[in-house]
Amino acid sequence: MDIVYVDNNATTRVADEVIEEMLPFYGQFYGNPSSMHTFGGSVGKKVKEARQRVADLIHADPEEIIFTSCGTESDNTAIHAALLARPDRKHIITSKVEHPAVDNYFKVLEKQGYRVTWVDVDKHGRLDLEQLYKSMTDDTAVISLMWANNETGVIFPIEEITAKSREKDILFHTDAVQAAGKVTIDVSRVAVDMLSISGHKIHAPKGVAALYVRKGFKLSPYMIGGHQEKGRRGGTENTAAIIGLGKACELAGHHLDEMNTRVRELRDYLEKELLEKIPASSVNGDPEHRLPNTLSIGFDAVEGESILLMLDREGICASSGSACTSGSLEPSHVLMAMEVPFKSAHGSIRFSLSCYNTREEMDHIVNAMVPTIQRLRDMSPFWKDGKMV
Amino acid sequence: MWDYTDKVKEHFLNPKNVGELKDANAVGETGSLSCGDALKLFLKVNDSGRIVDATFMTFGCASAVASSSALTEIIKGMTLEDAEKITNDDISDFLGGLPKEKMHCSVMGQQALKKAIADYKGIQIMEKPGEVVCECFNITDLEIIEAIRDNGLESSDEVTNYLKAGGGCGNCLERIDEIIETAVAEN
Ligand SMILES: Cc1ncc(COP(=O)(O)O)c(C=O)c1O
Ligand code: FES
Known about the structure:
The complex is a heterodimer. Chain A is α/β, with parallel strands linked by helices. Chain A is about 40% helix and about 15% strand. Chain A has a 7-stranded mixed β-sheet with strand order 2-8-7-6-5-3-4, sandwiched between helices. In chain A, strands 9-10-13-12 form a 4-stranded antiparallel β-sheet. In chain A, strands 1-11 form a two-stranded parallel sheet. In chain A, helix 8 packs across helix 13. The model of chain A has no long low-confidence stretch (mean pLDDT about 95). Chain B is an alpha+beta fold. Chain B has a 3-stranded antiparallel β-sheet with strand order 1-2-3. In chain B, a hairpin with a 5-residue loop joins strand 2 (about 35-45) and strand 3 (about 50-60). Chains A and B meet through helix 9 and helix 10 of A and helix 1, strand 2, strand 3 and helix 2 of B. The complex binds pyridoxal-5'-phosphate (PLP) and FE2/S2 (inorganic) cluster (FES).
């Protein structure tokens, strides 16, 4: 059976071009980029090229790019460094819908005595800007807000927000793991101090990522060790993966247009078809400010895990914001923060597309979804005669 | 991805006895939309007290559907007397086991059966005896004590696996720990 992969916010297929670029560095060219000899140095040259390619994707200077082992490490490093840079400040700000890489770190910091403002979102997943601006004080060390949400695709107005944080001299980190490669990121126009991206969301392998650190900010390392990354991250570089990340960033730059035209149209088509053909369905998240590849959609009176397992039989890989799939018992903290009603929160599915998806695949999904939801509703005690009871 | 047995998958993909039973003379309902799973069980009991037919309607994950289907298969043809002795373990055993985080699905089956039998006998089960401990899932101290006693639970994680209590905001976890301590001390 052909796989229809629409779970690209979870992880992506490694592009063939990326694999090709990486392979020699697992075989023949195994040198250490820090070595004095030409053999290692030639690997160092490719790492340098990768750094340039990553920088180009976000309009940064290569010196502002640090390679790390994952998006989570980039997020943790940024927050950790910001707090060390502002040791006198005891207040930190984030939102209620962050990825666990930020959310759980902030929870630990709260236990350690930091005062945390968890900024609310409205029912469309939009940030409460008034609350955010009011909470910025002289005591605020760092603000960490995601550029785009992994579950709903909702985009936060980072440019607007950082204008304010800069004014108040508060350090700003953004988790752009989901935004990179899907929307334009230009750090020369947006006053972020640090920005995280992760390889496996943009067709590079898992376990490689980058952190942008604005020139002038002296970052204390999170991983303490050798002089690699100019003393900002110890540990011998994961050379092949870094070279793969560089290639993936180059490709992501080339595909940005396609992502915002062809892929967006596919997503919009899928959305329209599902809403039309399945009654009592609703989209989660602000349709105006949303990643072009993401569709989070809820179906009343049915449960997400059941939907996913039925789709799985049709070769369709998606994910859900429902509780049962993750092992937790409540729907995702993102949908709960948006106050999505329980009737559709438990039955929410996320389809996240990539440039590899086709129109035929969207039709296949629609054709599988219609009878799946019907079957589950026929079984549901909350559904009768074509509506919720 | 959950590690479901083939039997669970089979009863999820092709559940037995789905739908409303038109001439049911006993109904048991448990769970709710907000909890993420709910089961409505229909029984037809004959004059000699035997369950001649059973059907269900379920909202929930694959293991909730499979547990409901298994339950109806187990109890069809049973006397009420025997059916009263069915436990969540019987349901889980019938399915070749459930992941431990999904035990509450089989517990839901047992609860719905209890309620349906009470309904047949015309007994009003007091809606939720005891004091609510877990607000998120509306679980009382008496329910927790019963689950601890019946299943030999020893930690709040296990209580969550069986009853869901504690699996939401987590505010009730301390209270659950206290209940476990008291229950263990009393034993
Ligand atoms: C928004 C966001 N931040 C951070 C991460 C973590 O990235 P990684 O899996 O590379 O640690 C992810 C993906 O899992 C994500 O979606
Ligand atoms: S009160 Fe028990 S989990 Fe929230």
